[in-house]
Fold:
Amino acid sequence: MLRKFKIYIAILLLCAFGFAQDRKEEDEIIRIETKLINVPVIVTDTSGKPVLNLKRENFVIYEDGKKQEIASFSLTEAPFEIALLLDTSGSTRNELPLIRRAASYFISSLRKDDKVAIVSFQSVIRDGKQVAVSQILTGLTEERLTLEKSLANISTSGGTPYYDAMLEILNKVFNEEPTEKYRGRRAIVALTDGVDSVSVADFDEVLELVQKKGILVYFIQLDTRDFFEEGLLQDCEIATKFSAAQLRRYYKQFGAKSKVEKTYDFCSLGYFERLAISKKLYEIADYEMQRLAKESGGQVFPVVDLSEARRAFKQIAEAIGASYSLGYYSSNESKEKTYRKIRVELRGVSSPMNLRYREGYEVSFVQ
Structure:
């Protein structure tokens, strides 16, 4: 009898252990995260004027060619959360009053419930050397007086940590999930030439996070090339020199197996070589800005100088005020980590219209 009892207990323990193992294995299965995909959409007529009277039924969303059901729709009156990045390096260092006035005008052009954060560059001493870093002057706030005080505190830097600043905005300013009021309505507005000189972060990191978070990116693209190249062509002792990060970015285009001779000694470069490198750096910056803006649903506004920035800021404020926010739950249950393409179309409209929207996202997984 005792022997039979022991056998019975052993069977129960084995069953319990097997159940626990099955449960553990079940918990370890990778599942795709059920998450609302937010798609900001800007709609304009053929003259560029925002279209403000569209309804949910006017929009159709496709993911990888398959129609999706629209689960959320925000009207144009809904507020935005905006991170304002001000490039205070290089040729802008003598233009701080103009930068402050243009940024102040932009903030005053926004709506009452729009929240703004301000980020700029500054120079600090680290390990006995002066380095340029990004700084968050103020987090997201509706308090216009706080923002004006922050603008008064922007300073200059000896370099351009552009991608570090973008990554800091994505990880710190927009670190938490938005509340329902601001869901799908977040934007970065950057006043910069986009020619990074000292960042640890790079374009791919920023692009991936922008895609993941679904944030609109707008650029007011400053033309600083003449100023930069004038400095490059000075005698070596006083010339504006390429940073190591800029030269690495330049040589990266040739690939790891390239036989192109690499040099990080600026003074060994001839004038034509300096100009060729400069030209390529500006081409890279232009391409990366255009891609970030296009894939996020934003836009690039080129300006010759800071006197034109105010007009560009006005256009961005109008675009943000005319933005729709659509949301859907993907019908694709595949567990493959991949990039998914988004397409938005209009129906039931009588005249041609132009659309800008988030063009895709990276699939997110949870354990």
Q: What stands out?
A: Confidence is low (pLDDT under 50) at residues 4-17, 19-32.
